[in-house]
Write a structure and sequence with these properties.
single chain, alpha+beta, three-stranded antiparallel sheet, 4 helices, 58% helix, globular
Length: 83
């Protein structure tokens, strides 16, 4: 396997591993959370705008904290269970 091929394999491994699996990460980008949830960025931004998804703002960036994501998932689970 050549040098270039090894780099491609390493990159593929990085892409497939979810940043949400890293316990040292306290916050995630909208792109990361949207990908994790399997929804589009625009839908996540819409939920943020409507106050349906907790976030923090750092400069121009919207960040979703690990705790905020867990809280959102818990509330959605309760909503579905109440059905």
């Amino acid at each position: 396997m050549g040098h270039r091929e090894m780099g491609e394999v390493k990159r593929a491994e990085t892409v497939t591993g979810s940043p949400l699996e890293d316990p040292s990460r306290l916050a995630f980008s909208v792109d990361e959370v949207a990908h994790f949830l399997g929804i589009g960025r625009s839908l996540l931004y819409e939920q943020i705008r409507r106050g349906q998804f907790p976030y923090i703002r750092v400069g121009k960036r919207y960040l979703i904290t690990r705790q905020g994501l867990a809280s959102y998932l818990d509330s959605e689970r309760e909503h579905v269970a109440a059905g």
